[in-house]
Structure to design on (638 residues):
């Protein structure tokens, strides 16, 4: 076995191991997960006051929809307030927010631009609610989501944060359909991580927190423009429990162009690398169990795997081009021909790597189908899975490689948008 | 220990999946080897058939249809599979054995082709191509491309490829008969030996002016 073959098998082994670990977790908690399908809406006795902070930066077109979706939540009105913070917008966001000036349940604030985390922290400082959440202006919440999440808080006093399930809102093109598949898979992954007590991100859209926790571990930080990741790392570092409420659905708008998706993912991956480096003392630290032995290593493995395999693919592609040029230069266009186009199973790759790759894709497809069911987006195989695999196989290596390059070259953090 | 049991179970399952993949790979590679053996057996029968036909031909005229075209096609198919095996099979032991048998079949076809073309005055050009799969022959791959191109342009050209490094008495005999040097690639075109890489243009100059339509023959590189 050559060194490149050994590296390829190692990378694929680790990738399969991560998926198998999720699968083992799934079947270990199968009964519990099955019950989620018809989970009734909880009855809330003496529910806590909730504040939802809407950080706004140039959101004049979407901010009304976001606030309206919060006000429409199935929750006692007197116990739910919206805190909209205009983070120094340069468009008409403030004028739009001013329409809520006299609204009994909406409070509006304007501050100088300082980044999303400063707007959220500003909101936290200006509320006395027990439970605090945020909602990006590009997201909308299902009416029963808050009630379900508060139900979890009340059932589990140890839960300090609860994350919802994210669903891509009204996909219109193939790229957005591919993202919907990815988000469905994320719900599965997040539920498994939740069962392992090892969630590594509390997403901006509608993650809820107990307010007293902020006094314990501090407010949000800039954290390489991924404050929701860093905050989850800090919670794990302080042994604070993060739960995932599968049936609380939040619909979010996804990037509709490759360029926008690239910018978003570059920020996420760069943030993951930087935050993981900042909290590297947690990796393989027995004190933090699954978070340190599974979540962080599997994230690192996935980046290494994609970077390595895409470099191998690139190397093979370059060799193929060189071969074609060589053949053309020494033998002209006549080499090759239609004679080789007939199908013969003999020429199908039957090396071990071929079969383990099939197993890996089967495990990934299982996680997508399970996530799609958890997100109540369907029951079976969705053909957009193929689009997801194809599209992400091509474009994901670019943002991963760029994020790694930025880290190695010590470039600055990517822009927000 | 219990908190790490899930890690252990996942490891066992992953190892089992890899073992299954490894077994599947061996199973299908064995089937491929069997397919080569089957094709080789068929080619052996066809060699004997062609030889018998040729013996019959001695007693009749060339207008009676006697041809080893079918055999050439089978050898070509066999050559493709052996080339694929050389590049993809992890265990080359069995393949090397098959290559030895294949070399014998090639020589038999080569001799038969020469006899038929002499007896019936067919314009068939035979090229013996000696190559090596090790890293010492940097031009062997390119020579293979050139010969492929030549076969497509000149259907009356028949190329017989031999792995000079193979432990085969037949190949050693050929090397001795045609005085093939250690420098590879080496070509023997209609009995004359050419050592080192030969360009397409150089080979074209050595061929008869007008190509004659004949089916393709075996090439392995």
């Amino acid at each position: 076995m050559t060194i490149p073959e050994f590296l390829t098998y190692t990378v694929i082994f680790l990738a399969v191991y991560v998926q198998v670990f999720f699968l083992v977790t799934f079947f270990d908690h199968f009964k519990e997960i099955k019950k989620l399908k018809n989970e009734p809406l909880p009855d809330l006795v003496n529910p806590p006051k909730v504040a939802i902070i809407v950080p706004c930066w140039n959101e004049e077109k979407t901010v009304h929809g976001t606030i309206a979706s919060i006000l429409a939540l199935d929750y006692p009105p007197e116990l739910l307030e919206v805190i909209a913070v205009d983070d120094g917008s340069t468009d008409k966001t403030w004028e739009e927010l001013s329409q809520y000036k006299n609204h009994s349940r909406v409070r509006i604030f304007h501050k100088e631009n300082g980044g999303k985390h400063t707007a959220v922290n500003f909101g936290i400082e200006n509320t006395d609610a027990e439970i605090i959440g945020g909602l990006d202006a590009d997201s909308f919440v299902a009416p029963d989501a808050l009630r379900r999440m508060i139900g979890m808080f009340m059932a589990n006093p140890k839960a300090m944060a609860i994350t919802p399930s994210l669903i891509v809102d009204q996909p219109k093109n193939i790229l957005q359909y591919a993202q919907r598949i990815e988000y469905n898979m994320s719900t599965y992954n997040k539920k498994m991580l939740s069962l392992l007590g090892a969630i590594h991100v509390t997403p901006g859209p509608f993650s809820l927190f107990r307010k007293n926790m902020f006094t314990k571990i501090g407010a949000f930080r800039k954290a390489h423009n991924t404050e929701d990741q860093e905050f989850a790392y800090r919670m794990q570092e302080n042994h604070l429990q993060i739960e995932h409420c599968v049936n609380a659905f939040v619909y979010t708008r996804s990037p509709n162009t490759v360029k926008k998706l690239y910018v978003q993912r570059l920020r996420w991956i760069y943030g993951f690398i930087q935050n993981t480096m900042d909290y590297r003392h947690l990796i393989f630290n027995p004190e933090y169990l699954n978070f340190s032995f599974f979540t962080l290593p599997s994230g690192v493995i996935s980046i290494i795997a994609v970077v390595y395999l895409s470099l191998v693919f690139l190397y093979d592609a370059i060799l193929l081009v060189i071969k074609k040029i060589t053949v053309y230069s020494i033998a002209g266009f006549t080499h090759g021909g239609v004679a080789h186009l007939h199908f013969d199973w003999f020429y199908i790759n039957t090396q071990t790597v071929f079969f383990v790759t099939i197993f890996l894709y089967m495990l990934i497809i299982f996680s997508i189908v399970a996530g799609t069911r958890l997100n109540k987006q369907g029951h079976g195989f969705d053909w957009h899975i193929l689009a997801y695999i194809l599209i992400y196989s091509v474009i994901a290596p670019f943002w991963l490689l760029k994020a790694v390059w930025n880290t190695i070259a010590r470039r600055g953090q990517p822009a927000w948008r | 220990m219990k908190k790490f049991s899930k890690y252990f179970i996942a490891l066992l399952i992953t190892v089992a999946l890899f073992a299954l993949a490894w077994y599947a790979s061996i199973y299908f590679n064995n089937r491929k080897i069997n397919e080569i053996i089957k094709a080789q057996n068929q080619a052996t029968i066809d060699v004997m058939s062609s030889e018998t036909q040729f013996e019959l031909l001695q007693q009749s005229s060339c207008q009676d249809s006697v041809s080893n075209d079918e055999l050439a096609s089978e050898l070509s198919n066999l050559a493709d599979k052996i080339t694929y095996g050389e590049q993809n099979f992890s265990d080359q032991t069995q393949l090397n054995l098959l290559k030895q048998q294949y070399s014998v079949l090639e020589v038999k076809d080569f001799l038969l082709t020469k006899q038929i073309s002499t007896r019936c005055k067919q314009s068939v050009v035979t090229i013996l191509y000696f190559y090596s799969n090790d890293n010492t022959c940097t031009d062997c791959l390119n020579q293979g491309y050139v010969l492929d191109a030549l076969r497509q342009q000149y259907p009356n050209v028949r190329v017989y490829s031999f792995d000079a490094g193979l432990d085969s008495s037949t190949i050693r005999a050929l090397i001795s008969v045609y005085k093939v040097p250690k420098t590879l690639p080496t070509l023997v075109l209609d009995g004359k030996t050419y050592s080192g890489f030969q360009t397409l243009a150089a080979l074209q100059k050595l061929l008869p002016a007008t190509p004659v339509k004949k089916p393709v023959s075996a090439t392995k590189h």
Q: What stands out?
A: The mean pLDDT of chain A is 90. Residues 39-258 of chain A form a domain with the Spore Coat Polysaccharide Biosynthesis Protein SpsA; Chain A fold (CATH 3.90.550.10).
